[in-house]
Amino acid sequence: MNHLVIAPIVLPALVAPFIIMVLRYHLDLQRIFSVASSVLVLCLTLALAAQAADGTVQVYELGDWPAPFGIVLVLDRLSAMMIVLTSVLALAVVLYAIGTGWDSRGANFHALFQFQIMGILGAFMTGDAFNLFVFFEVLLIASYGLMIHAGGAKRFQAGVQYVVYNLLGSTLFLFALGTIYAVTGTLNMADLAVRVAEMSAEETALLRVGAVMLLLVFAIKAAVLPLHFWLPASYSHAPLPVAALFAIMTKVGAYSILRVYTLIFGPDVAITEGLVGDWLLPAALLTLAVGAVGVLGSREIGRLVAFGAITSMGTLLISIALFTPAATGAALYYIVHSTLATALMFLIADQVMERQGGAVAAMRLMPQSGLLSVMFFVAAIALAGMPPLSGFIGKLLVMDAARDHDLVWWIWAVILIGSLVTIIGLARAGTLIFWKSHGLPDSDSDADTEADSDDLFDGEATAAPAAAPVLPLVVCFALMTALVMLTVFAGPMTRYADATAAQLFTPIAYIETVLGGGSK
Q: Residue 257 and residue 238: Cα distance in Å, rounded?
């Protein structure tokens, strides 16, 4: 077996308890180990992506127990792409948190951060449905700790709401797994694919119930309307560097839909035929519409970006719901773009909040206002999917994939109008924050406005430091560069995405490799 497959999961799982037990009172050493772990995880995931690029599927059997009896990790093109994306974002976020001092505002930030990365990577690489649930729970525990990092009543309240919604999803997940196991006798994904395909129609009524419950669970994780209510408050009141990391967490729900409903309940499985498209497509269209309206109406910058994340998830899920190889290829390209663009916007929003508070309103002129306004402009174009950045290419790919669908005009209309409304909302916010503030007198009214903004975030310090740190801006520029590179190399990236989609819709190599215990 190739032990490199499990290394990206084991490394943060070892570093996190080491930080808690040995480095608990040494912040500088915590930072060194956390950054070193993130860099090494990035190198490991890049090496694994290179191995999976030719379509090879690798399986890692924990304890040398073969599937379906043991736990397996599986590396293919899709999981390789997602773990690279996660590790890139993780390194950016940990450097940003160190540069701004966010990691010093509460206890155990770096340990929780490493557990979070372990959970995300595990969810992307597991080949077992029950262990997908286990990694979901690791995500929930670590993300709750990160959400309430630095304290505050509103942050704690949002964290409780986040946990309640996700615990409901976890309970439903257990019910779904129990139902599926009762019918099939297995939870290994490859083994499930074989057994579901062999079942007669008389045996599948209960199985369809399990498939529907799973789809609801993944929809909660992906913040699909009407199951999205937890996201705006949770993400907007979380520390925004943490919210930037959470940009990949909604993609865990989207990834799970792709994996389960192409491998186990694929397009050739009669019992679940039309399940994804019939239910998910209307919900995705409404998600995009509600997200765009939320962007337009937001009066806090954190909430503005949170609704932007909902809008991007709506576009992504429209493409997934079309359930064709071409649409899935477009979805995979858009996953990379939307994750980077959403994370970038959260980090820029944090820079704005640190200088003048969280309200989308005219205030005093900020330090580095010109630089931040340019960065906000680029991030807004990316998040709204406007030319010339990769979001525009991603939306064109999604719209092109929908050309032959019965609801093509509805899909095109919602995507185009949603993009227009989103860019109007972002332009309004940028105008108020960066332009209108120039004409305000430096008077007592400014102090009152700043005090009001401070109240929104439980008294957190929002005044700019005497010398703004450079590292956070470097991280933001690095993410902007990644978006530009995704645009420049759109051709190779779309070819990789199309090849990944083709592998998803022909899962025979995945199934044979997992059940055969080899690499193909």
A: 26
What distance in Å separates the CA atoms of residue 331 and residue 189, rounded to the nearest whole number? 22
CA-nearest of 350, 377, 354 to 434 is 377
Question: Cα(229)–Cα(325) distance, rounded to whole angstroms?
Answer: 31
Global pTM exceeds 0.85:
yes
Describe the crossing of helices 109-125 and 77-100 by its angle, rounded to 10 degrees.
170
Contact 212, 274 (CB under 8 A): no
In 3D, which of 310, 315, 319 has the Cα closest to residue 277? Answer: 319
Cross-strand partners of 176: none
What CA dihedral angle connects 260, 262, 267 and 270, to 10 degrees? -30
Spatial distance between the Cα atoms of 291 and 311, rounded to a whole number of angstroms: 4
For residue 67, the Cα-to-chain-centroid distance in whole angstroms is: 29
Query: Which token pair is 282?
Result: 């209307």
- Calpha distance 137→131 (Å, rounded): 10
Tell me the Ramachandran region of residue 49: left when phi exceeds 0, alpha when psi lies from -120 to 50, beta otherwise.
alpha
Positive or negative: CA dihedral 372, 374, 376, 378: negative
HEC string for 352-363: HHHHHCCECCCC
The span from the first CA to the last CA of the chain, in angstroms, equals: 13
Residues 6+ apart with CB under 8 A from 448: none
Q: What is the mean pLDDT of each run of 10 residues along the chain (520 residues)?
A: 90 95 92 96 96 93 86 95 96 95 89 95 94 91 87 79 85 93 92 88 81 90 82 83 90 93 84 77 93 90 91 94 93 96 94 73 61 90 91 94 92 95 92 67 43 40 54 94 95 96 93 77
Of 352, 366, 373, 365, nearest in space to 472 by CA: 352
